[in-house]
Amino acid sequence: MTGRKEETLTNVTLLGNQGTEYAFSYNPSVLETFDNQHPNRDYFVKFNCPEFTTLCPKTHQPDFATIYISYIPDVKMVESKSLKLYLFSFRNHGDFHEDSVNTIMNDLIQLMDPRYIEVWGKFTPRGGISIDPYCNYGKKETRFEEMANYRLMNHDMYPETITNR
């Protein structure tokens, strides 16, 4: 089996870069992609970000969450270090929980045009209540659109034990 040739990673500039600069405001331009080496196969790629932070747009108090991103790639995939830096850019960004997860999903759809994607934010309680928004998308006029509808209608019917709160 042969490995990926470096020339196929010309769009990946952050991985291995020791001079990484962190954006302190929302910055989707930091996201990078690389080619899916298995576009003939459907498979999930999952990311868990247990240290996501954003600000309440009204009180400017910090909100903390674990962000779960799962997607089925088509031609392009998101590079993980750029995703980490992108999620970090929400640190001083003011958005409600629901807006944050939808913004993340919208930016990743625009970046990669995946077959399917879902983003789930599990926010720690503030004021005695937690908010766990979930959104998903399946490419229009494909079986993934039907999959998205099914997963949305059946989402969280059997919630797992929450251990990050």
Structural account:
This protein has a single domain (22-153), classed as GTP cyclohydrolase I, C-terminal domain/NADPH-dependent 7-cyano-7-deazaguanine reductase, N-terminal domain (GTP Cyclohydrolase I, domain 2, 2-Layer Sandwich), CATH 3.30.1130. The chain has helices at 80-88, 97-112, 143-153; strands at 33-35, 45-55, 62-72, 76-78, 116-123, 134-138. It contains 3 helices and 6 strands. The mean pLDDT is 89. Helix content is 22%, strand content 25%. A hairpin with a 6-residue loop joins strand 2 (45-55) and strand 3. By secondary structure, the protein is of the alpha+beta class. The strands form 2 sheets. The protein has a 4-stranded antiparallel β-sheet. Strands 1-4 form a two-stranded antiparallel ribbon. It is found in: Cytoplasm. Its EC number is 1.7.1.13. This is NADPH-dependent 7-cyano-7-deazaguanine reductase. Substrate binds at residues 78-80, 97-98. The active site is at residues 56, 63.
